[in-house]
């Protein structure tokens, strides 16, 4: 018990410093040997060093683990990824950390020694999927008689449920939150002795800036880069600030280096990720520049950051690495939207002219209850500014229906906003109450499920109808398509246009720069004439191979170079 008490005491001390929670579990028979290790192991100062450490050496800090305790056998890891793009990028970070420690990766369940499930907690449905997956893995673990199979739960659901996850699902061996992935080799090593290990420590400064993610899908022509972690916005419905902690930005230099490495690997498109990219700040850099905020009527729950490099500066640097690389970013919280960001998007051909401006609701009263910091009018004003500054810009959004107290009239305002704005892409969700959030404490989840479902369907209907119209209007136009792959069933070529819409065309040799014909492969840019449209896909005819620069030069000057 001494071990647990000491850890709990240490954990409490750390939590008071950085709202953390870190515990390890072991059965009583193993306490003696662990106590012995504790004597040789680190003291409190080592924990504090770890939590505030910003420069990480090649050899990761692994408390309680002596050289002899490191895993010696090659362990094969199977990754399961749920949730948003941040989880995809985090999985690449985890894989980078484990690969360095000698772990191997497998895509075959039967070969796996360790299952790592990267989880999401955004809605109840997201967690239900993961519980089903865990049912399957529990059975798998029981049947694997020839070896000991371990299950690790990572990500947002791990952070939300903490040790309760292990209490509820005994088959789980490791629980690791989004800021404790450096600790995974140690946590996994602890499980070798049959222990269960939990680290859900949230950090104020962890950005994994020095970890070069190793992409699970090396063949993909696109990649994600997290430029910041956490969120300080505290929208009343949202669990993310509780699962991902406080907002912090990664230094510009490490982001630019990663973009350069990806460009060298042949990656043609990167998406910069953050919960609110407008508040990106690299405070290690000084700049005299300030953001000019566009529309009136926006407020923020936390102090706007001053000084440091802003998102507009980052976009400038990232888009200059390789003019042939498409740059996307998400999500841009509508509040505090700076003019400088719009300016640089309109100037750089390789920054995609698609803005994700999540509205969440079209009703000012609902937006107030959601604590979004803007009204319907301010949002519409921003949309107007965006459309006038960047001609031809596409917009995408997230919308929630059935939030606490949402009346039929308030919901209809969401529908009318969708009618007015012309979204090219929308992610539409029925509200799901999450524990710990302000809405959970302050409001009642009083819209019945069948009404949420009905409103969700009505949103989907408006969205699909509008998309169909927008897409049909593209028939006859020529789009620049980045080829992603070949459809397994039809053999057709699949790619995306600048607005991230899927474009499909038949596989055929296409006119090349030298006047000859050559086949199309992933990573190619092809000018495609749109000949058919559905709500989510465009059909086209390939015209000629091109480059990003040539395509937009021709578009601007009306002739081929
Ligand atoms: N930071 C991003 C979004 C992150 S979460 C932003 O501010 O836009 C992705 C989306 O999930 C949110 O935009 C919201 O539409 C949805 N969402 C978040 N919490 C939800 C909840 N409790 N119920 C339903 N949808 C939710
Ligand atoms: Fe959640 Fe709001 Fe933060 Fe987006 S901005 S992650 S919706 S709290
Ligand atoms: Fe993403 Fe889900 Fe976490 S949406 S940030 S993985 S709660």
UniProtKB/TrEMBL annotation:
Pfam families documented for this protein: Radical_SAM, TRAM, UPF0004
Every MTTase N-terminal domain range: 75-193
GO CC term, one of those recorded: cytosol
Keyword rRNA processing attributed: no
TRAM domain boundaries: 472-544
GO BP terms: regulation of macromolecule metabolic process; regulation of primary metabolic process
Key words, A-Z: 4Fe-4S, Iron, Iron-sulfur, Metal-binding, S-adenosyl-L-methionine
Molecular functions (GO terms): 4 iron, 4 sulfur cluster binding; metal ion binding; tRNA-2-methylthio-N(6)-dimethylallyladenosine(37) synthase activity
Entry keyword Metal-binding: yes
Ranges for domain Radical SAM core: 217-470
InterPro entries: Elp3/MiaA/NifB-like_rSAM (IPR006638), Methylthiotransferase (IPR005839), Methylthiotransferase_CS (IPR020612), Methylthiotransferase_N (IPR013848), Methylthiotransferase_N_sf (IPR038135), MiaB_methiolase (IPR006463), rSAM (IPR007197), rSAM_horseshoe (IPR023404)
Cofactor dependence: [4Fe-4S] cluster
Cited function: Potential regulator of CDK5 activity.
Family: Belongs to the methylthiotransferase family. MiaB subfamily.
The name this protein goes by in its record: CDK5RAP1-like protein
Natural source organism: Spodoptera litura (Asian cotton leafworm)
